Amino acid sequence: MSENRKPLLGFVGKPPGGTALGNSGKTHCPLCMGLFKAPRLLPCLHTVCTTCLEQLEPFSVVDIRGGDSDTSSEGSIFQELKPPSLQPQIGILCPVCDAQVDLPMGGVKALTIDHLAMNDVMLESLRGEGQGLVCDLCSDRKVEKRCQTCKANLCHFCCQAHRRQKKTTYHTMVDLKDLKGYSRLGKPILCPAHPAEELRLFCELCDRPVCRDCVVGEHRGHPYDFTSNVIHKHGDSVRELLRGTQPHVEALEEALAQIRGTNTALQKRVEAVAADVRTFSEGYIKAIEEHRDKLLKQLEDIRVQKENSLQLQKAQLEQLLADMRTGVEFTEHLLTSGSDLEILITKGVVVERLTKLNKVEYSTHPGVNDKICFSPQQKAGRCHGYEVYGAINTKEVDPAKCVLQGEDLHRAREKQTASFTLLCKDSAGESMGRGGDSVQVAVVPKDKKDSPVRTLVQDNKDGSYYISYTPKEPGIYTVLVCIKEQHVQGSPFTVTVRKRHRPHPGVFHCCTFCSSGGQKTARCACGGTMPGGYLGCGHGHKGHPGRPHWSCCGKVTEKSECTWTGGQSAPRSLLRTVAL
């Protein structure tokens, strides 16, 4: 790796113009509140000191994933995967977000080291005149200089010894005060398996940084390349994942804004209803006072119930937003301030966390509404012998409880208006007693789904709705009745539309002789005749059905559809009868 190459992600040694970056990095532990000491990166992208994590109380969970854990770590980089088995897993809770952290086999010290946080701590210490920094060689004395070649902080004694050694005589030494304007002072990151070697290569097969000894040992034959050559591909994949996460932050912020707006509307609505209740109760000073108090308590219970629901949803969304922001802020900080190697080391944890966050489902709409109204004309029983009125209504129509009624539910005639009634009820099966619900009705021919029939919905203002439509052609129709975009009970259902009812052109008579006034040429569709040259039917004669019937088709049912198919050429004497 070339030390003088141009940084890929904006990693700079010293900002232009000599100005130092602000203290935007995370430098203090959320538990001990002090500067990080051996910071470890948790799967939820929160960073905590190693000693602080070791003080947390662990718990046991059952891990059925086998040797492969969701928690990536440097200590487990070179461990082989074990076959899946049912084994106990030790875990802790993140002290920031309470997320479960499954510890790897090596415990807390096997978690990923947050090198980015270590760099920020070093910069923070430099801005404080080097307080807290100790010599990297003797680990005892206060740091005075830094070897730019070895990337090591040295005390005065070790600095002199460094200059006396032949291999390090010509190394560049810089005073700490001259490093305050720098934004990166990272140390070389050494291989956990070969501590004498620096991680400069990346194994594509194992998807992890390796050293020179690794590629000739455990990773022999694996495709690898310098970290400077693969950072473009892996950095772009992390950026793409970040771009998919950022819109969720905006959506969550908008959802929380709606929650706050709904909560405000709920408060205003509650106050307005309470005012109505108090105004109405003034006319019944003695008897109504108790009733008024009951109404206000009921209203308060509704407010508490709805507000608790909103607060619960708000807390859930806020926690998810905090998790999203943590992921976005850490990833942005990693991509803008971390070195190539630091990105590659933490890439697995970041990708896993952002992927998990992107899969979380949430609703961007408030879980409750502000539908509360006061009905002053509604009877509320008797209070101290007085008839009292007024009730708080929070009823909402339940589509599954609504009922469809009417003779035309499953049959209709072409070009004739068919109708039925929708009775709206709440979840308890009680009538709504009011109108105003959004009722959607669609009547669609089976063979012409793109040509629905025009429907009319009439609100009766009592919880019932009169629905009518006029089909144009016979056939099978599908009727869909929905409230709040949900089907009511029995919907959808089919309606058989028959041809238009054919009225009888003849007369409903006892016989042709009587209805025609004794005309010999008058005929009847029953086929009966009389002697003496009469072409129609008569009582007791041949062919008479023995009961009243229609002269046009012979049907004996008065209220029936005519089945005569004689056409225009039929003898007019069949139809020309006289009702006496």
TrEMBL record:
Answer whether the UniProt record assigns the keyword Zinc to this protein: yes
Q: Which GO terms describe its biological process?
A: bone development; inflammatory response; negative regulation of inflammatory response; proteasome-mediated ubiquitin-dependent protein catabolic process; protein K48-linked ubiquitination
Q: InterPro entries given for it? A: Bbox_C, Filamin/ABP280_repeat-like, Filamin/ABP280_rpt, Ig-like_fold, Ig_E-set, TRIM45/56/19-like, Znf-RING_euk, Znf_B-box
Coiled coil: which residue ranges?
A: 249-323
What Enzyme Commission number(s) apply to this enzyme? 2.3.2.27
Q: Name one Pfam family in it.
A: Filamin
Q: Main location per UniProt?
A: cytoplasm
Keyword Magnesium in the entry? The reply is no
Q: Which Gene3D superfamilies is this protein grouped with?
A: Classic Zinc Finger, Immunoglobulins, Zinc/RING finger domain, C3HC4 (zinc finger)
TM segment ranges: none
Q: Which reaction does it catalyse?
A: S-ubiquitinyl-[E2 ubiquitin-conjugating enzyme]-L-cysteine + [acceptor protein]-L-lysine = [E2 ubiquitin-conjugating enzyme]-L-cysteine + N(6)-ubiquitinyl-[acceptor protein]-L-lysine
Outline what the protein does: E3 ubiquitin-protein ligase that plays a role in the regulation of inflammatory response. Mechanistically, mediates the 'Lys-48'-linked polyubiquitination of TAB2, a regulatory protein of the kinase TAK1, leading to its degradation via the proteasomal pathway and inhibition of the TLR-mediated inflammatory immune response. May act as a transcriptional repressor in mitogen-activated protein kinase signaling pathway.
* Record-linked PANTHER family: BONUS, ISOFORM C-RELATED, E3 UBIQUITIN-PROTEIN LIGASE TRIM45
Q: Specify the protein name.
A: E3 ubiquitin-protein ligase TRIM45
